[in-house]
Specification:
Helices cover 33% and strands 37% of the residues. The protein has a 5-stranded antiparallel sheet, covered by helices on one side. The chain has a 3-stranded antiparallel sheet with strand order 2-7-6, with no helix packed on it. The protein is built from 6 helices and 11 strands. The relative contact order is 0.16. The N and C termini lie far apart (85 Å). The protein is α+β, with helices and mostly antiparallel strands.
């Protein structure tokens, strides 16, 4: 009789352990998602231009769309501005501004190694603040998830946090406004999870 009860007890314990292991196996580790996003975002910066720009540059003084970004960077001390007259064949001349890196600007200019003369000014780092949802539902064999998260831009450079910069570069206004949402695609491979796509959902605040 004692042996029968012992055998039954062993079966009950094995069943409970197996059930618990199964639950753990199908549970998504949100902390792993957070670490993966942190690692991915650690290598990214938010910059004034969406793609590297070439300097020196020249802009027509009568075209505010051409000059406003350069002028804001000049007011921030990152560029030096030189007015000049540009001769045009048969129709006289026009006023233009030449813009080049100042000493301060050169010290923080992020060079694009693949394009000589190109670079960017970067002003902050995005950091994931929460994992909100993920799809599909947790599954032990799932190798790809679409993850919705919140993120914020931190370590904001002082020169970027001015009214002139927010007006000239709407992405700065968006980043300063607070947390934003994004959707990331996380894919599992032999080394763990990696981010294969990152799409912020917030539309940049238009210039006022």
């Amino acid at each position: 009789m004692r042996n029968t009860w012992s055998a039954a007890l062993v079966l009950i314990l094995m069943s409970a352990l197996g059930s618990g292991a199964g639950c753990r196996k199908n549970t998504v580790d949100k902390k792993a998602f957070e670490r993966t996003l942190d690692d991915y975002l650690a290598g990214r910066q938010r910059c004034v231009w969406p793609a590297p720009a070439k300097l020196p540059a020249q802009a027509d003084t009568s075209d505010s769309e051409q000059t406003k970004g350069f002028d804001a960077l000049t007011d921030a001390g990152l560029l030096a501005r030189t007015p000049e007259q540009k001769q045009r064949f048969l129709i006289g001349s026009k006023e233009v501004n030449d813009y080049d890196l100042s000493g301060k600007g050169r010290s923080i200019w992020i060079v694009d190694a693949s394009q000589p003369g190109y670079g960017n000014f970067c002003y902050g780092h995005p950091v994931a603040t929460s994992i909100d949802t993920y799809t599909p539902a947790a599954n032990a064999s799932q190798t790809e998830y679409s993850v919705t998260c919140h993120f914020a831009v931190t370590q904001l450079a002082d020169w970027a946090n001015t009214a002139e910069m927010r007006t000239a570069f709407p992405r700065i206004a968006t980043d300063i406004s607070g947390e934003q949402t994004a959707t990331a695609t996380l894919t599992r491979n032999a080394d763990g999870w990696s981010v294969t796509d990152w799409k912020p959902a917030t539309t940049e605040i238009p210039a006022q």
